[in-house]
Amino acid sequence: MKSLDADLIIVGGGLVGAALAAALANTPLSVLLLEGRPPALDFPADTWDARIYAISRASRRLLTDIGAWGRLDPARLQPVAEMRIFGDDGRAQLGFAAPEAGVDELAVILENRALQRALWLTVNEAPNVRVLCPAQPAALQIDADAAHLTLADGATLSARLVVGADGAHSWVRGQRGIQVAKRPYGQSGVVANFECEKPHRGVAHQWFFEDGVLAWLPLAGQRMSMVWSCGDALRDELLALDAVALAERVAVAGGRRLGYLHQIGKTAAFPLQLNHVAHLVEARLALVGDAAHTVHPLAGQGVNLGFGDVAELARILIAESPQRCGDYLVLRRYERARREPVYLMQTVCDGLQKLFNNPNPLLKAARNLGLGLTDRQSWLKHRLVRHAMDA
Ligand SMILES: Cc1cc2nc3c(=O)[nH]c(=O)nc-3n(C[C@H](O)[C@H](O)[C@H](O)COP(=O)(O)OP(=O)(O)OC[C@H]3O[C@@H](n4cnc5c(N)ncnc54)[C@H](O)[C@@H]3O)c2cc1C
Question: Is 231 buried (19+), middle (13-18) or exposed (0-12) by CB count in 10 A?
Answer without folding.
Answer: middle
